[in-house]
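Tutorial sheet, problem 5. The two components below are modelled jointly, 229 residues in total.
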Amino acid sequence: GAGVSQSPRYKVAKRGQDVALRCDPISGHVSLFWYQQALGQGPEFLTYFQNEAQLDKSGLPSDRFFAERPEGSVSTLKIQRTQQEDSAVYLCASSQYMVTETQYFGPGTRLLVL
Amino acid sequence: AQSVTQLGSHVSVSEGALVLLRCNYSSSVPPYLFWYVQYPNQGLQLLLKYTTGATLVKGINGFEAEFKKSETSFHLTKPSAHMSDAAEYFCAVTESGGSNYKLTFGKGTLLTVNP
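Model answer (structure tokens):
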């Protein structure tokens, strides 16, 4: 079956631009996660949704980062006024429920801010 | 908060040799433990996970890992490396308590396999 998909796969933005990154989770998966992976580092947790409810946004680096999942399926991560330090790969993952359930990862969106 | 240490950012082995990738975590409370593999320009793929029960866990592609509570370790092994195993490997643990949905990753170990 279809896995987690993300779009765009690559995004180049000028500093100060707003960007929107899309995640399509596996159909029926309740939980959705966003992670940020800087070059040469492991992924770091950004935020977590259970259905449409954002239960944890403790990992968002600043108030320029905003995520939503209005209908409990597709999610969008928005970054306002992008900065060079926002350059990273943004990974989306989904799981059927949570805790011991496997998180299935998408291919990521590579964001480069110039 | 949990922390994960992967010893060796880069491991190089010969084809057919033993693969050993090390992972230690910080919590005294046994978390759930995972190994993921990442091929270039692809997302993370689960190799194996430990939740409860048998401490020796077998995964895909011939990999296995052993949970050792006394050593707070979860090292990944494969008896005989194949060229297709070349990739980056990440160890991850869940947070404890109410944030147990959150994965904390190590910095990764890049495995190269020489012919």
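Marking note: Chain B has a mean pLDDT of 91. Full credit if you identified this.
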